[in-house]
Design the sequence.
C-alpha cells in the first residue's frame, strides 16, 4: 500500500545525485552506462573491421604486398606501449584503492604519457609513409600489379588508425586531467568511479589496437 | 551490487604476470607472422588478439566486481559485429563473377 | 511557458517552477526535456511536410513543370532526411519515452539527466546543420546517400547533411544508453521485469536497437565524408572498392532503423488498447518476446533492400527468408491486440481511434512488406511507388498515428489539461481518410510501374497521382488540426485530474502535471494492466 512518506531523496552533499536512491545505485548505473557506451564503440570501429575483412577477402595478395610497406618495428613498439599503459592504469587504480595518492598520480601520469608516446610513434609512421608516397588522396603513387589494392589497403589503414588515434588522444587527455585531479586529492579509496570508468575507456582503446595491429602489420611477413 | 571499497586489492605480482602474459602473446603473434603458415597465420594472430582481449577484460572486470550483465553487454557488441561481417561476407563470397564484355 | 495558465494547475508541478528561458534551456528534468524535444519534433515534422507538399504538388502534372528535376530531387531528399532522422526516429522515444519512462518505473528521473539534455542539444545542432544544407542549396542524393553519387558527383552540401545526421545519431545513442541503464538500474522495488508496462519494454527494446545500429551509421557517414573530402575511399570502384559495400553498411543500420521507428509505436498501442478496451493485454509475455524478437531479427534482414543491386542471389535468398521470419513477431502482436479488443468494453476516444487506425494500416503495410521481401516480386517492384506506399503505410499509417495517439492519451498527464474530444475524433477520422487517399493509389502506381524519385511520369499515371495529391491536402489539414486544438487546450482546456482515463500504470498515480520529483507519495506496484480490479 502506498505510504505517506515522501519519495524525494535528500542526499545533501554526499556526492549522490538526487535522482538516485543511494551511492550503490549511482555507481552501478555509471559503470553499466560506460559498458553500454563501449559496446557502441565496438560497432563504430566494427564498420572499419568489416570493410577491411571484405576488401581483404577480395584482394588477399594486394593486402599482403601493402602490409609489407607498414613499419613492423614501430607497430610492435606501439603495441607494447599500449599494453603497458593498460597495466599502469590498472596499477594506478589499485594505488587509489590503497589511498597512495603519490603512487596513483605517478602511475596515471605515466599512462597518459605512454598514450601520447603512442601518438608520437604513429606520427613517425605517417611521416615515413608520406615520404614513400603511400598516402591516398595526397601523394599516393605505387607501381606493380597490386597498386590498386595497395591503395585500397592504405585507405583503410588511414581510416582505422586515424579514428583509433583520435580515441587515443581523447583517452590520454582525459587521463591527464584525472592525473591532475588525483594529485589534488579529488579521488580516494571510497571515491574513484570516474577514474575506473575512464580506465575502462582506455582498455577499449587498447583492445581495438590489439586487433588493428595483426590485421595491418602482420600480413605477408613470412619469408 | 558491491560498494567500492569492498573490492579485494590484488597483489602487485598479479599485474606483472598479466603484462608478461600479454607481451609473450604479442611475441607469439609477431613471431608466427614471420613463418610461412598460410591461412594459419591470420588464425593464430586473431586467436592471440582474442585471448589478449579476454585477459584485459577479465582482469579489469575483476576490478569492477563484474556482473553477468556487463559480460553480456560486451559480448553482444562483438556478436552484432559478427552479424555485420558474416552476412556481408555471405554476399561477397557467393557472388559469381560476371566479367565485362570486353574481357 | 506562459501559454499554460500554470497558476491554475496543482502546485507544485514541474511546469510551474522557475519559468525562465534559461531554466528551461539548462533543465535536467526529463519532463521538461521531453517538452523541449516535442517542440523540435513538431518543427521538423512540418518542415519535412513542407518538402512533401512540394513533391506532391509537382506530381499533379505528368510533365512535372512545377519544379525543375534538380529541385525535385532536392525536395524528396530533404523530405526523407528530415522525416527519417529528425522526426520518425526520435519521435516517440524522445517525447513520450523521455517523459514517461521514469514515471512508469517509479523513478525520479532518468539515470543520466545531463546526458539527456546534451542529447537534445545534439539533436538541435544536427537539425541546424541539415537546415544549413538546405539554405546552401540542398542535396539531391536521396536520403540513402548511395555511392558513388554521394562521394563523387553530388554537390558539396552533402558534407553539411552528413554532419547533421552524424550529430543527430549521437543524440540517439545517448538517449538509448540512458533508457537502457535506467530500465536496468532504477525500477522501484517490487517492479520486476514482467510487471513492466509494454511501453517500457518497447522503450528498452528500441534502445537496444539504437545503441547497436546507430554507431554503424555514424562511421558509414564518416566514410562518405572521408572519401569525398580526402580521397580516402573504400567505395570507389577505380580503387577496387565496392559501391555495394556502402549499401551493406548503410542498410545494416537503416533496416533496424525502421524497427526503431515502429517498436515505440507498438508500445504506445499496447497501452492505449488496454486502457480503452478495459482489458489486460492478451499474451503479455508473447508481446515482450515479440518485441525483443523484432529487435534482434531486424538486424538480419538488411539485404532485402539490395535484391537488385548486384548482391549475390544466394545472399538474397537468405535475406528473403529472414525477412519472412521477422514478420512473425509483428503478426503475433497484431493478433494479440485484436484478442485484447475482443469482448472488451471499448470506448472510441481519440487515442483509441488512432490505435485502431494503426492496427489496420500497420497490418496492411506489413503485408505489402512481405510482398517486397520475395525477390521475384521485388524485381519489378523495386524503386517503384509500391515501395513508397509500403513504407508510408507502416511509418505514417503506423508510427505517426501511434505518436499522435500517444500524444492525445498522455496529454492530460503532461499538461494537466483536457483537449476537445470532438475535434480530436474528427481529426483522427479525417487523417485516416486522407492517409488512405494519399497512399493507396501509390500501391497501384507502383504495380503499374511508375518509378520513384522521378519528377515527371507517363500520362497514364496522372489520375492516380491526382488522387494521391488530393489525399495529401486532406492529410495536411488533419495534421494541422491537432496543433490548433491542443494549443487551445493549454490555456482554455478543462483541468485534468490525476487519472482522467481511469487507466492503470504508475504514471496515473501522480498528479497531472506531475511534480518535479515525479511522485510525492510512493506509488503502488501491481501487475501490469490490472484492468479487472476496480481501483486504479
Sequence:
Amino acid at each position: 500500500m502506498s505510504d505517506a512518506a515522501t519519495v524525494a531523496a535528500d542526499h545533501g552533499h554526499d556526492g549522490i545525485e538526487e535522482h538516485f536512491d543511494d551511492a550503490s545505485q549511482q555507481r552501478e548505473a555509471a559503470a553499466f552506462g560506460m559498458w553500454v557506451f563501449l559496446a557502441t564503440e565496438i560497432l563504430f570501429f566494427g564498420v572499419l573491421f568489416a570493410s577491411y575483412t571484405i576488401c581483404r577477402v577480395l584482394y588477399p595478395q594486394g593486402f599482403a604486398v601493402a602490409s609489407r610497406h607498414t613499419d613492423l618495428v614501430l607497430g610492435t613498439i606501439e603495441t607494447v606501449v599500449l599494453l603497458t599503459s593498460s597495466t599502469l592504469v590498472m596499477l594506478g587504480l589499485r594505488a587509489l584503492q590503497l589511498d597512495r595518492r603519490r603512487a596513483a598520480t605517478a602511475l596515471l601520469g605515466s599512462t597518459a604519457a605512454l598514450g601520447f608516446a603512442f601518438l608520437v610513434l604513429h606520427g613517425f609512421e605517417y611521416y615515413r609513409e608520406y615520404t614513400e608516397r603511400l598516402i591516398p588522396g595526397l601523394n599516393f603513387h605505387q607501381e606493380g600489379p597490386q597498386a590498386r589494392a595497395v591503395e585500397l589497403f592504405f585507405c583503410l589503414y588511414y581510416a582505422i588508425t586515424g579514428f583509433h588515434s583520435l580515441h587515443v588522444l581523447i583517452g590520454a587527455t582525459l587521463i591527464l586531467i584525472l592525473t591532475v585531479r588525483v594529485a589534488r586529492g579529488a579521488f580516494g579509496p571510497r571515491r574513484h568511479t570516474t577514474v575506473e570508468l575512464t580506465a575502462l575507456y582506455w582498455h577499449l582503446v587498447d583492445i581495438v589496437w590489439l586487433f588493428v595491429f595483426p590485421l595491418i602489420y602482420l600480413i605477408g611477413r613470412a619469408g | 551490487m558491491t560498494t567500492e571499497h569492498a573490492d579485494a586489492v590484488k597483489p602487485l605480482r598479479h599485474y606483472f604476470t598479466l603484462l608478461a602474459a600479454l607481451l609473450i602473446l604479442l611475441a607469439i603473434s609477431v613471431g608466427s607472422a614471420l613463418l610461412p603458415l598460410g591461412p594459419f597465420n591470420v588464425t593464430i594472430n586473431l586467436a592471440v588478439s582474442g585471448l589478449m582481449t579476454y585477459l584485459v577484460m577479465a582482469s579489469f572486470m575483476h576490478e569492477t566486481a563484474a556482473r553477468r550483465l556487463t559480460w553480456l553487454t560486451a559480448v553482444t557488441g562483438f556478436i552484432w559485429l559478427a552479424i555485420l561481417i558474416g552476412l556481408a561476407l555471405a554476399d561477397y563470397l557467393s557472388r559469381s563473377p560476371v566479367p565485362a564484355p570486353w574481357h | 511557458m506562459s501559454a499554460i495558465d500554470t497558476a491554475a494547475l496543482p502546485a507544485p508541478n514541474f511546469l510551474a517552477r522557475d519559468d525562465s528561458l534559461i531554466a528551461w534551456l539548462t533543465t535536467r528534468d526529463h519532463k521538461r526535456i521531453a517538452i523541449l524535444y516535442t517542440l523540435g519534433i513538431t518543427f521538423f515534422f512540418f518542415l519535412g511536410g513542407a518538402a512533401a507538399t512540394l513533391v506532391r504538388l509537382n506530381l499533379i502534372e505528368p510533365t512535372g513543370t512545377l519544379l525543375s528535376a534538380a529541385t525535385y530531387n532536392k525536395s524528396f531528399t530533404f523530405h526523407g532526411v528530415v522525416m527519417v532522422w529528425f522526426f520518425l526516429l526520435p519521435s516517440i522515444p524522445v517525447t513520450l519515452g523521455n517523459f514517461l519512462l521514469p514515471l512508469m518505473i517509479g523513478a525520479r528521473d532518468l539515470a543520466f539527466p545531463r546526458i539527456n539534455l546534451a542529447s537534445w542539444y545534439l539533436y538541435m545542432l544536427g537539425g541546424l546543420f541539415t537546415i544549413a544544407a538546405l539554405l546552401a542549396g540542398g542535396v539531391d542524393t536521396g536520403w540513402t546517400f548511395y555511392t558513388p553519387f554521394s562521394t563523387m558527383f553530388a554537390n558539396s552540401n552533402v558534407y553539411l547533411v552528413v554532419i547533421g545526421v552524424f550529430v543527430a545519431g549521437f543524440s540517439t545513442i545517448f538517449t538509448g544508453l540512458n533508457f537502457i541503464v535506467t530500465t536496468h538500474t532504477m525500477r522501484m522495488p517490487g517492479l520486476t521485469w514482467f510487471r513492466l508496462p509494454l511501453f517500457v519494454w518497447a522503450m528498452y527494446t528500441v534502445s537496444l536497437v539504437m545503441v547497436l545500429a546507430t554507431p554503424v551509421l555514424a562511421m558509414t557517414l564518416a566514410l562518405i565524408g572521408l572519401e569525398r573530402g580526402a580521397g580516402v575511399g573504400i567505395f570507389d570502384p577505380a580503387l577496387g572498392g565496392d559501391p555495394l559495400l556502402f549499401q551493406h553498411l548503410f542498410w545494416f543500420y537503416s533496416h533496424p532503423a525502421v524497427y526503431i521507428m515502429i517498436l515505440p509505436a507498438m508500445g504506445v498501442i499496447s497501452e492505449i488498447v488496454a486502457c480503452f478496451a478495459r482489458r489486460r493485454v492478451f499474451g503479455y509475455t508473447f508481446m515482450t518476446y515479440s518485441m525483443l524478437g523484432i529487435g534482434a531479427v531486424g538486424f538480419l534482414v538488411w539485404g532485402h533492400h539490395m535484391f537488385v543491386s548486384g548482391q549475390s542471389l544466394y545472399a538474397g535468398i537468405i535475406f528473403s527468408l529472414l525477412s519472412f521470419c521477422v514478420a512473425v513477431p509483428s503478426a503475433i502482436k497484431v493478433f494479440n491486440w485484436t484478442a485484447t479488443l475482443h469482448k472488451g468494453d471499448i470506448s472510441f476516444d481519440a487515442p483509441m481511434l488512432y490505435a485502431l487506425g494503426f492496427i489496420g494500416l500497420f497490418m496492411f503495410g506489413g503485408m505489402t512488406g512481405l510482398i517486397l521481401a520475395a525477390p521475384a516480386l521485388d524485381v519489378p517492384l523495386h524503386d517503384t511507388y509500391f515501395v513508397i506506399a509500403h513504407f508510408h503505410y507502416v511509418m505514417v499509417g503506423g508510427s505517426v498515428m501511434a505518436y499522435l495517439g500517444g500524444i492525445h492519451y498522455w496529454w492530460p498527464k503532461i499538461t494537466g489539461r483536457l483537449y476537445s474530444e470532438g475535434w480530436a475524433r474528427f481529426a483522427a477520422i479525417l487523417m485516416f481518410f486522407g492517409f488512405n487517399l494519399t497512399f493507396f493509389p501509390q500501391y497501384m502506381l507502383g504495380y503499374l510501374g511508375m518509378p520513384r524519385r522521378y519528377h515527371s511520369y507517363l500520362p497514364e499515371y496522372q489520375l492516380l497521382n491526382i488522387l494521391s495529391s488530393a489525399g495529401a491536402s486532406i492529410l495536411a489539414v488533419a495534421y494541422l488540426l491537432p496543433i490548433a486544438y491542443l494549443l487551445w487546450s493549454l490555456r482554455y482546456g478543462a483541468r485534468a485530474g490525476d487519472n482522467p482515463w481511469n487507466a492503470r500504470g504508475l504514471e496515473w498515480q501522480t498528479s497531472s502535471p506531475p511534480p518535479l520529483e515525479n511522485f510525492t507519495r510512493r506509488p503502488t506496484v501491481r501487475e501490469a494492466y490490472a484492468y479487472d480490479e476496480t481501483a486504479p
